[in-house]
Amino acid sequence: MVDDRAGRSERDIAVRRRVAETLNRQQGPLRPLPVLMLLGPRGSGKTAFTGHLHQWAQRVPLASIDAEPVGEHGGTPIDVLIDMAFQLSAHHDGIPRLGFPALGSLLAAVGTAVDARSREQAVRDMAEALRAGRAREHSYQELQGIVDGVAQLAGLGLPGWSSVVVPLVQGGIRMRLGLRLRRRLAETSAAGPGRGATADFLVGVNRLYHGYPAQRAEAERVLLDSFLADLRGAYASGRADRLRTTHCLALLDNADSSVGEAFLTLLLESRERSGRPDPLLVVATARRRPEMLVRAETGSGHRPDYRESWPQPARFRPLSAGPLLAAGQLRDLSRREVEAQAAAALDTLPAGSVLPRTDNAVQWLGWIVYEITRGHPAGTAAVLDGLRRMPADLPWDARVHRSLAPTDGSVQPVPALSAGPGLLELLQRDCSAQLSRLMPRAAAGVTLGRAETCESLWEGQEPVLREFVGYCADDLRTVPEPDEGLPALHRLTRFLLLRRLDGAPENGGPGSWKGAHGALRAAAVARGDRRAVAYHDLALDDLGSAVDYLRDRFDETGADEWCADLAWLQRAPCRWGGALPEAARDRYERLVGVAGGDPARRAITRLLAAGWITPHPRPDGAAQPYGDPLGDPYAELYPDIVEEFLTLRRPIGNEHDRHVLLRMAQRYERKPWW
Predict the structure, then answer these.
(1) Would you state the pLDDT for residue 343?
(2) Does the pLDDT of residue 55 top 90, yes or no?
């Protein structure tokens, strides 16, 4: 079933527009069409978008194949090729039907060799059928004998694609074209088996296909060459040039699977050998950079950052990875795109349902879901679906608290509806069981590098650490940490892993909340990083130590740098303590109590506590580090933050610093979803 959200976002529309621009063709010679690779981690919407393109492009020659199950069921690149040709040959009103006589003939020749009892006779029949019409240059009609022979053998042990071979050849026979079979076969691999009579050539392919692995690989190259030769021939006549206003579209999902990679490698090698353009536009998706893409990058001496394929949120420009290959990364959804999905979710609520208690329910819901998921497509869809299906009378602050809560009993009450466990399983599906078990402790670090270099987190886990290093290098599963630009966990992934870490039993080891943050704190002490020490102090509920750091810094540095330190510390992760988050005001009063020290320290205590609980406005459109909006979903503590910033600026004599603190106060005068 096609996801009804696919194709509606600005992101999907931009990619579809790019596909449409490439798919349309003008009359005249064919032009080269590079394979378009769409990259994205699990849950980025690749399969859903492929399904959308399949529905959108129904009026053009189209094939859609998921390569992963083909490999899981023992298939080969030739199975992908045959399925693709079969789907492309479907009838479409208003345009000539595609036929694949050269490919079908080769497949028929290959297929006759499976049943040893009939192989010799079938090959003789094939050769005789061709020889009988040699004086007439082997017209398509002379292939009817091959078709009949294959049809008779379809139930006698032929490969699973035998039923596809017959219509492929028959479709070519029905086509009234002036091209001859010999001309199509002449476009196949120069190193192919013999260039004499057509029957000899087909028998040679037959023997290669059933020979040694290297010989079979050559036969597969010949088959791919014949497929492209058939496609080029279908666009060669004057009538076809007038009627075929689009190229052919092939959608290949999971192209990074072994079969998907092998097929694309065959395709690119065939195009490179022939040097001739063909009318096939391939849009492939992958959750990792396939080897063929890595090799193209290595050959160019430059590894592109495929996130740069989005110069603007609504403009997709894939990056070139060579003359035959282009790639781009599917970005996460923007806040505006999440808000559009939130509006649709609110529209489907049952009559009488309570709404968020804000001035604009759509803006609020879009904002808070975006803050939780940072636009991760699968995460956004799962959270909105869960929120929509919760009891109609349940307040929305309670809904969002439960939307990603663990269901393992580590929090009470256990939520009946939570997308958290399913999403975490999806996001870690490519990790080994050992790494999945240790990932929560890595989430305690601000960046993945800090977790990696904290040796006490990985004692006795060197093999897993090596896998973790590979995870850190995967720029499809990681994001740059805004403050340092180094690899960090995606916002949604880190949130879910921290919830699991919070629920782990305290056994003194690094697999618990205290153990992981304690190990990272000790590492920060060893390298003299006072700010990181304060960060983990706050995560360990030691508010006083974090306040001491900020109080010292207040006298040591200017307001710009001090505010940056404050904002960084306020995003330290917090515990739920075995229950869903308490009310923001109650937690604030409990944390602050009776703040001690001089006026500046008391103001800093209140400011740090409030900012640790509440979400923050987005500064000037810049990327934000990790944050948890569920502590204060309605931003009730914003007035307290404004008051404390104004309190801190009063005794300062420096005009610039006073202005910085005033501007910080003004940022909190408006709700973050406005």
Answers:
(1) 97
(2) yes
SS3 195: coil
Q: Are 418 and 402 in contact (CB under 8 A)?
A: yes
pLDDT of 661 over the 90 cut: yes
Overall pTM surpassing 0.85 (yes/no): yes
Rounded CA gap, 297 and 320, in Å? 9
Do the bridges between strand 478-480 and strand 487-489 make them parallel or antiparallel, or are there none, so unpaired? Answer: antiparallel
Evaluate the CA torsion angle 28, 30, 34, 35 in order and state its sign. Answer: positive
Residues 6+ apart with CB under 8 A from 178: 237
Location of structure tokens 């240790």:
438
pLDDT above 80: residue 671: yes
DSSP 8-class letter at 142 = G
- Are the C-beta atoms of residues 281 and 33 closer than 8 Å to each other? yes
The two three-digit tokens of residue 205, written as one number: 């392919």
Q: Report how far Cα 99 is from the mean position of its chain's Cα atoms.
A: 35
Q: What are phi and psi of 102, to 5 degrees?
A: -65, -45
CA torsion 242-243-246-248 (nearest 10°) is -120
Which position has the token pair 């050539």? Answer: 201
pLDDT score recorded for residue 186? 56
Residue 33 has pLDDT above 80, yes or no: yes
- Please name the helix (run of DSSP H) or strand (run of DSSP E) that holds residue 203, with its range, or none: helix 198-209
Residues 170 and 206 sit within 8 Å (Cβ to Cβ): no
- Give the total residue count for the chain: 674
Residue among 166, 177, 179 nearest 105 (CA): 166
Question: How would you write 595-634 as a 3-class SS string?
Answer: CCCCHHHHHHHHHHHHHHHCCCCCHHHCCCCCCCHHHCCC
Q: In Å, what is the CA distance from 607 to each residue of 242, 595, 598?
A: 71, 11, 14
The larger pLDDT score, comparing residue 192 to residue 405, is at 405
What is the reported pLDDT for 391?
94
The whole-angstrom separation of Cα 10 and Cα 53 is 15
Q: Higher model confidence: residue 485 or residue 489?
A: 489
Residue 203's pLDDT is 58
> Which residues make Cβ contacts (< 8 Å) with residue 11, sequence separation at least 6?
313, 316, 330, 331, 333, 334, 337
- Rounded Cα–Cα distance for residues 54 and 62 (Å): 8
**Amino acid type, 356:** P
Q: What is the pLDDT of residue 629?
A: 92
Taking residues 220-229, report their average pLDDT: 86
Q: What is the DSSP string of 38-98?
A: EE--TTSSHHHHHHHHHHHTTTS-EEEEEHHHHHHTT--HHHHHHHHHHHHTS--TTSPPP
Residue 144 has pLDDT above 60, yes or no: no
Give the torsion sign (CA, 444, 446, 447, 453): negative
Which of 92-96, 118-122, 597-601 has maximum average pLDDT? Answer: 597-601
Among 56, 54, 73, 156, CA closest to 115: 156
Residue 96 banded pLDDT, cuts 50, 70, 90: confident
Burial 620-659 (b: 16+ CB within 10 A, else e): eeeebbbbbbbbbbbbbbbebbbbbbebbbeebeeeebbe
Look at residue 170 and tell me whether its pLDDT is greater than 60: no
Torsion, Cα 656 661 667 670, to 10 degrees, reads -130
**Of 650, 673, 670, residue with least CA distance to 370:** 673
**At 555, phi and psi to the nearest 5?**
-90, -15
Closest alpha carbon to 279 in 88, 16, 31, 28: 31
Q: Which residues contact 617 (CB under 8 A, 6 or more apart)?
A: 667, 668, 670, 672
